[in-house]
Amino acid sequence: GAVVSQHPSWVICKSGTSVKIECRSLDFQATTMFWYRQFPKQSLMLMATSNEGSKATYEQGVEKDKFLINHASLTLSTLTVTSAHPEDSSFYICSARGGSRQETQYFGPGTRLLVL
Amino acid sequence: GQNIDQPTEMTATEGAIVQINCTYQTSGFNGLFWYQQHAGEAPTFLSYNVLDGLEEKGRFSSFLSRSKGYSYLLLKELQMKDSASYLCAVMDSNYQLIWGAGTKLIIKP
Fold first, then answer.
1. How far is B68 from chain A (nearest CA, A)?
2. What tens digit of pLDDT does each residue of B49-87 get?
3. Dihedral of the CA atoms B87, B100, A51, A40 (nearest 10)?
């Protein structure tokens, strides 16, 4: 149990385009979902926390107009990187909390974004 | 402020035992987590401790002392596949996870 999927796993796009990443909890209802970013050889950085049906809470320094988060249902959250630039290239990982272990975050496999 | 400390890197030998320590200072405590992260992959959940003591799960065990703000992850019978980063994270009073920077564990044959 507690499986989280992410799609796509890889994205290569041109500068200026928008990229949407989906995060789904497959076998449990996720009351809260989290979006992280990780640059090579660096720690996980929490970008935002989202609860189903409400606006996401963004961490300091994360532009909410650039990283749009929608948590429309208890099993799906999306992150849209708008007008992506090369410096947005990173490993984006979502996690979900809920199900039988309400306290534990289960991570998706991550999405590698490369902006040319 | 809130702080999680763990060693940056450790080296151990295949078949041996290694202990990865984590100390924390947080505003409130609602449990401590250990995650494993292989290079280029997302973290996977290893353990959760909210009460003092040792939790054993196969080759991995996790210990917590709330009074000392201290935890360790113990890996026995090390295998090459255990080479990874091990992340310590504490859930604070707001149920937010505070992450350590991770300990890179290198296993040598």
1. 22
2. 999 999 999 999 999 999 999 999 999 999 999 999 999
3. -70
